[in-house]
Hints:
By secondary structure, chain A is α/β, with parallel strands linked by helices. Chain A has 10 helices and 10 strands. The model of chain A has no long low-confidence stretch (mean pLDDT 90).
Amino acid sequence: MLLEINDIDISYGDNPTVKDFSLKLGEGQICSLVGESGSGKTTVIRAVLGLLPGAGKVTKGDILFEGRSLLGYSPKEWRELRGSDISMIFQDSGAMMNPTKKIGSVFLEYIRTHKDVSKAEAWDMGVKMLERMHLPDGENVMKSYPFQLSGGMRQRVGIAMAMTFQPKLLLADEPTSALDVTTQAQIVRQMMELRDEYGTSIIIVTHNLGVAAYMSDYLVVMKMGEIEDEGTRDHILNGSQNAYTQKLLAAVPSVGGERYV
Amino acid sequence: MFNPEDLVLEAKHVTRKFPAAGGRTLTACDDISLNLYRGKTLGLVGESGCGKSTFMRFIVSLDTPTEGEILFKGRDITKMKGEELRQVRQHIQMVFQDPTGSMNPKMKIRDTICEPLLNFNRISKSEVDAKARELLEMVELPGDFADRFPHNMSGGQRQRVAIARAIALEPEIIIMDEATSALDVSVQKTVIELITRLQREHNIAIGFIAHDLGLIQSFAHQIAVMYLGNIVEVMPGADIDKCDHPYTHALMGAIFDTKMDFSKKIESIEGEPPSPLDVPPGCPFQNRCDCCKERCKQEKPSLVEVGPNHQVACHMFR
């Protein structure tokens, strides 16, 4: 098992926000966390990367990455792990970039933090990664500021950065929610290619059940901080008897499905 | 399906050009003609930046087109000013994407909902409380919500309040700009059910902006697909699977659905639309189209009738 989350509670104050959450993820698996806003999906994946905001902490249970508990990591160990073995993609990759710095300078800093290479080598690595993500003219993107790129391009830059060191685990927090449908389809396809090419395991947090169903092998439905239902894609879509899962599925608009007029 | 006597608003050849840096012009809407019918929904879909919001803003007179006219019951609202325009505004209301941003955080829901009614002297101040409760119940919220502030409610509840405010004046047209995209799927479903119920009961014409074709086809009577400032296809909402334009096909192919065939590769057009500052001559969709011919690069296709209530702007269909 690459990642094992064993029965964790996560709390920001006195009461746990996420209760009794467990998940096992093998190599090359894609798992989705779905649920409504405020159900604790993002909190779970932030806990995996040790990035809980404010006073948030794991109060019960354990998170094992390749058999080792992540909870006891020192800040130095976290720095080595984040961005190389475990990476994250955010909803708006533009917002995580420094608006006063060009993509190239952020990318160079990131690569050279993790790997002892010269600036020229790091630049080439960056350009190569951007072009792998189907960004036309990587050189030009490296010389641009985040605001000069469209939302879809920024998201590709975010994925390119996250994939530079071929992480074993990729955490994606609503990676396509801010994008147009056509761009969303392109990004989803590229994330699937990452799994096929590098064997990356992916945990994707999304409220789009269509995307979750298309991408994942395993789905976890969350409600109010607890696991409401979980299972393989086939089980969740066709076999689940859980009322909440069925309600969520029924709410997805579908071409040729229910019409209100 | 669409009776000429039900026509309430008619946009004719509407064009909007914005001046841009370097003496260039940005054409946000290019020669758009669309109609709104009483009791029917017009869904406008397209990618970000294609001009769908710009167009809808003309209808609520938040902006005026550079060319063309918008006839509301035969009168051109783009030329109206002052009190005349103010009087027309009560018949055309709007619901925005972000309900939090469109409400005053310091005003109680009661005052938010009833402000339009007070503005037009439809009710007196003593009637505010009763009217607010009535409107809240109309959008399936408890009447006690009148005493709340926007921050005491969930996003779905706030959007219902925004809808209550829009229907308060009993308008003939409501424009909804991505009114459900900030909501969860399950909440989105209930809001759509509410909108369609109110439409049936009050015979309202709705102009709904969305970027999700899967959503819009579930409740629109008429769908217009927009690309780079141009309407490329207009079709009845029930016949979405009979769409013809390559761009509409691409949008259809990009829909993720829980009932889809997962072994099938998701098909989507590559790249992004060109900048509206450098629209190529000819068909706006040429550089992303699989069926692009020499003619598409030179001559811009115009909308042609291909079936009942179905028009397509593509050289392949004529």
